[in-house]
Every structure is written in structure tokens, then in C-alpha cells.
Specification:
Blueprint lengths: L10 E5 L1 H8 L4 E3 L16 H20 L4 E2 L1 H11 L10 H14 L2 E4 L9 H12 L4 E4 L13
Helix pairs in contact: 2-3
């Protein structure tokens, strides 16, 4: 019988925010969130307002982890700041190869990857590229469950 990533303890599926935070402990975690497909209009053009919305939702997840005592590195938060400050339009927010190279050092510096249940995460090429890299390098991946707010956990929307 072949062992799976779950069997090996590398992939953690449907974990609560608090359980994920406890297992990450003091390690720096990479917050893998969707972006590109969420920030385009019906013509496929970059939409700054949609980008601001994704930035805010990502920041809420960063905040949720901070409140649990976990430090996360969010390339999306930093990249959004860069793109929103780029008044000369020198950087294309939708240039996937550019951003993949730019994110890689941050990814390699982290001891865990967390994937919150944000809209679009399962279809995000970037999220799955990062998760695939982590699994190939035995870096733990945590897929955070959608939690029941009635259970007492505050989960960002």
C-alpha cells in the first residue's frame, strides 16, 4: 500500500483555524490565497476595486492567524500594495510568471503553508502551484476548514 501525503503528516485537510495555529506553532507560515481570477472584469482586464476586495479578505485571514499567535507571510498583501502604488503601471498584476518568481523566496522561507477557504482557492493556479511545491519539499500544508461561527471560532469572510 502506498502512503499518501495525509498519511505522512504533510497534508492536513479540513482543520479548524485554532487547530492549524496550534500545529504551526512558532513557524512562519505562507498564506496561500487566490488572486488572479478574482481580480479581472468580464473582459479579462485587471480591476483595481476587485483587487482591493481580495486584499481586504486576505488581510482578514492574516489578522485571524495573528490573533491565534501565528505569523503569516502573505505575498498577496504585499503584491497588492505594490500594484496599487504602481502609478506608472510598470508591473502587470496579472503577469503570472513574474509573480510566481517573486513569491518563490517567500515560499521557501516558510515552514508551513496555510490555505484558507477563500472563494476561488480550489481553482487557483497559484495556490496549487505553491501547495505542490510544498508537498514536493515536505513542507506541511494546512487546508483550513470553513468553520461554524456558532462553534465559537471567528472565521473571516
Amino acid at each position: 500500500m502506498t502512503a499518501t501525503f495525509v498519511d505522512e503528516g504533510v497534508l492536513h485537510v479540513e482543520q479548524s483555524l485554532s487547530e492549524t495555529a496550534m500545529q504551526i506553532g512558532s513557524r512562519l507560515a505562507y498564506l496561500a490565497t487566490p488572486y488572479t481570477r478574482l481580480v479581472v472584469d468580464v473582459r479579462g482586464q485587471f480591476d483595481r476595486y476587485k483587487s482591493l476586495d481580495v486584499e481586504l479578505r486576505t488581510a482578514r485571514w492574516s489578522r485571524a492567524f495573528a490573533l491565534q499567535g501565528v505569523t503569516v507571510a502573505s505575498p498577496i498583501l504585499t503584491a497588492c500594495s505594490i500594484c496599487h502604488a504602481d502609478t506608472e503601471n510598470a508591473i502587470d498584476p496579472l503577469d503570472d510568471p513574474f509573480w510566481a518568481r517573486w513569491c518563490q523566496p517567500m515560499l521557501e522561507a516558510c515552514g508551513a503553508i496555510v490555505v484558507p477557504p477563500m472563494e476561488g482557492w480550489a481553482a487557483s493556479r497559484g495556490v496549487w502551484r505553491e501547495v505542490s511545491w510544498a508537498l514536493q519539499h515536505d513542507v506541511p500544508v494546512y487546508l483550513v476548514a470553513k468553520e461554524n461561527p456558532a462553534a465559537g471560532a471567528e472565521v473571516p469572510t
